[in-house]
Amino acid sequence: MKKVVTCSQMKLLDHGTIHNMHVPSLVLMERAALATAEEIRKYLEKKNGSGNLKKERILTVCGFGNNGGDGIAIARLLHLAGIRSEIYLAGNPDKMTEETRHQWDIAMSYQVPVMNNPVWDEYTVIVDGIFGVGLSREITGNYKEIIDHMNEAPAYKAAVDIPSGIHGDTGAVLGTAFEADLTVTFAYKKRGLCLYPGRAYAGRTVVADIGIYDRDRDGSELASKAAWHIEKSDMKTLPARKPWGNKGTFGKVLLVAGSKGMCGAACLSASAALHGGAGMVKIQTVEENRIPLQSLLPEAMLTSEFDEEANKKNLNWCDVLVIGPGLGTEGSGKERMLWFLENGAKAGKPVILDADGLNILAMHPQWMKFIGEQTILTPHMGEMSRLCGLNVSELKEDPVARAYQYAEKSGGVLVLKDACTVVTDRNEKLYLNLSGNSGMATAGSGDVLSGIIASVLCMYLSCEEERELSYKAAMAVYIHGLCGDIAREKKGSHGMTAKDMIEALPEVLKLAEVQSKG
Ligand SMILES: NC(=O)C1=CN([C@@H]2O[C@H](COP(=O)(O)OP(=O)(O)OC[C@H]3O[C@@H](n4cnc5c(N)ncnc54)[C@H](O)[C@@H]3O)[C@@H](O)[C@H]2O)[C@@H](O)CC1
Ligand SMILES: [K+]
Question: What positions does the entry give for (6S)-NADPHX binding (predicted)?
Fold first, then answer.
């Protein structure tokens, strides 16, 4: 897992390194500049082979904050490497920070060329050192014009720390923003580089170690408030299947799903749970679905019984409940959701509440009392809007804040599905997901996710290692994204379907097994 920080957390870390560890600010700046210049040089060498770089011309646009100081140092390093490198100062030089002023003096001593009226399309690389984590308001006027010129230029574009104009905490565009091909960010990814639209503006993101001291690495306040993103190497921590296990010990999933004329969602969710390694899956549905479901998915069991005795038997049997795919919001769907939500909570079973399960909850907020620490809610933006009464654009302005609020209110684990899915719980554990692609925005994708979450919960059933429910949910979201990435590779983002993601699931889980064998 890698840490993701907010701008204020990053500033605290910078401050701590400088003032508590006595590392001079200029040392950090030099390391930031070295890392960025190195990435630019690598790009140029890839483009030109090891041949000469005479045709290259680099313009670094610098603000007067420390992001500008990084920029000036980058321009100097490239100049000293014999590459044509020029500086353009955006903003009022009288307002330069002490460090940036220092960088300016060094650059002037080395006679780094300074442009006053650059011809934008003469450059092969444009570097954005205007604003970093200090951006605090909308970009307007002269700055906006400059950024628009930079965007229109045909050059390769590299951003220092974060593209100017992207809000480092929310990923929102403040007025306008630099459209980078490459962003070299320092110490940790910033939230705004993970969330959209910021992530799209950042291009390829490289995290450079610049020697920031993080006393919070293990457990104090900043670490517990930081966000995390799961990466491929974390999959080796997935519990291995015990050689002496059987289908009963690998987890039993009860799926309360499907309604008359609606069996597809139940089928996808059940199929994902089975491909994800759940030992047994039973679908509690309506009798009309028996023939299609049993023909489509003979591995799953099916029951259409719905009375106190049968329900209790099924609830006792299962380890994990999924409630909602294709359930419908009226009639038997509502009754089935209420019975299993209420009694699942009383029995302390983990419940994944998805799709129509969430829509029914939105219509009956009094049932929120059955949501607890063992409940995972998996709304997409539309369902979240119905649950919390805010419209989708309000949610998208700051999805993390809205997710925190709802997790706190509901007491459950919230999986807020979007291009960057946010997972959080009432303890403010926060995960931002970086796997997946836009091809996954297709019918049935959410049903697949609920099945994968159920299967990941099953993996941990006979495992001694304690993991929080939010971590397991985040891991499932990450796996789901990898399935989407494989499906896109095979079928392309237009043609891939939810079924392709399920087909990719064994391949993804095999990767975990290979990794854990070392
Ligand atoms: N010593 C440190 O603190 C380090 C800082 N580093 C760099 O410094 C950056 C942060 O530097 P700063 O905190 O100086 O902040 P920035 O360089 O991001 O700029 C902030 C300045 O811009 C102004 N500003 C903000 N939004 C504006 C807007 N929309 N229009 C016009 N002016 C606006 C602010 O009032 C402030 O003066 C990081 O992103 C990173 O690139 C790195 O060099 C590593 C070490
Ligand atoms: K920048």
Answer: 66-70, 132-138, 143, 161, 265, 326, 380, 447
